[in-house]
Structures are given as C-alpha cells and as structure tokens.
Design brief:
The chain contains nine helices and no strands. It has helices at residues 2-6, 16-40, 42-52, 58-81, 86-92, 96-107, 111-132, 134-147, 157-191.
C-alpha cells in the first residue's frame, strides 16, 4: 500500500527474502514501541503497588483509577508518536531505532492530524465490522435456537462459531486500517522538512 501511495511498482517487496531482511529491524522497532507503551503505563503499576497493600477494598480501585488518569495523556501521545515505524523500515530502508526516531520527528507538530487520520480509518473499520459483523452472530444464534431451545444462547459455543464466520469479513476490512496508516505516513513524510530515506 505504501508503494501504491507513492505510485511505485516494486515486485521485490513481495519477495520473501525482502521480508526476511526487514524482519529484524521491524522486530526491534516493535519492541521499542512496546517498551515506550509500558513506560507510559508506569503510573498504573505504581498505583497498583501503592493501593495493593491496603486492607480497604476501595483503595486499590481508587489508586488504579488515578494511575489510569495520570497515564492517559502520555499513553495517547506515545501510541501515535511512536507508531509510524513500519513504513520507514519497509519502504525507506531504515533500521529499527532509526525508524522509531523518525516516527517521533515526523509526528512532532502534527500529532492531532496523525491521530485524526489513524482514528478515522479505525472507526470506519470498527463501524463497518460492527454493522455487518452482526450477521454471522444472528445466523449462529438462530441456528443454536433452532437446534436447541432459547437456552442454547446461554452457552458460549455459538459465539465461537459467530466469531469464526466473522473472520473473513475482518480480513477483507483490515486493509482499510493499513491504508489510513499508509496515507498518514505519506502525508507526514511530505510535510517533513528533511528527506526521510536512510
């Protein structure tokens, strides 16, 4: 999708050897993203430790709530600012740490735009999936009631089959999220003052 957004044709990127060469950098970038996310969640851990030693059952919940409120803004910022790590690795030949630094540099000053574009496509994905994805659950629920009674709906087995029937729809819609991510990266790349290739 990134190559399509750039108007380039490159069959090399579909090769398994190309993917294998890029995998270590993508893994390192993923681990740094996870580490930054855990760092942003540190107030929750501190709150859990503070509230966990209390005999009052409400104090751990209150401490956890405060921890969640404290970490909400840093977590929201990191989740977008550090997210654009895969296009630089796959399209521009960056290493894992270099891609992470580039993501922060590209998002600086454009966080609201980035969050809006990524969130808009994610909400469209979830909206379509939520609307059309109810059909497999209605079908499996109706079959469960037809073969058994309405009490079959109290057993979770039919839900598993509903989720399995929803999987092809999820697979069809997932490129929508990736497209929003790619478009946002290309927009940030065009707004960057300096070239971003490695």
């Amino acid at each position: 999708q990134g190559l399509i957004a750039r108007g380039q044709e490159n069959l090399e990127s579909a090769d398994l050897a190309f993917v294998a060469r890029r995998f270590p950098a993508a893994l390192l970038a993923s681990l740094t993203y996870m580490g930054l996310t855990l760092l942003a969640l540190a107030p929750v851990g501190v709150a859990w430790l503070i509230g966990g030693g209390s005999d009052d059952p409400l104090l751990p919940l209150l401490a956890l709530l405060i921890g969640l409120l404290v970490c909400a803004a840093p977590l929201a910022w990191v989740s977008i600012a550090a997210a654009f790590i895969y296009p630089p690795i796959l399209l521009d030949g960056h290493g894992g740490l270099s891609a992470q630094r580039l993501s922060f540099r590209l998002v600086r000053g454009h966080w609201a735009l980035s969050a809006g574009l990524v969130s808009l496509t994610l909400l469209a994905y979830l909206g379509i999936l939520g609307t059309l994805g109810v059909v497999p659950f209605v079908v499996t629920g109706a079959l469960a009631v037809a073969f058994d009674s309405a009490t079959a709906l109290l057993r979770p087995g039919w839900l598993v089959f509903g989720q399995l029937l929803s999987t092809p729809l999820m697979a069809l819609l997932l490129p929508l999220c990736a497209a929003g991510y790619s478009v946002c990266y290309e927009e940030l790349r065009l707004r960057a003052a300096a070239p971003v290739s490695a």
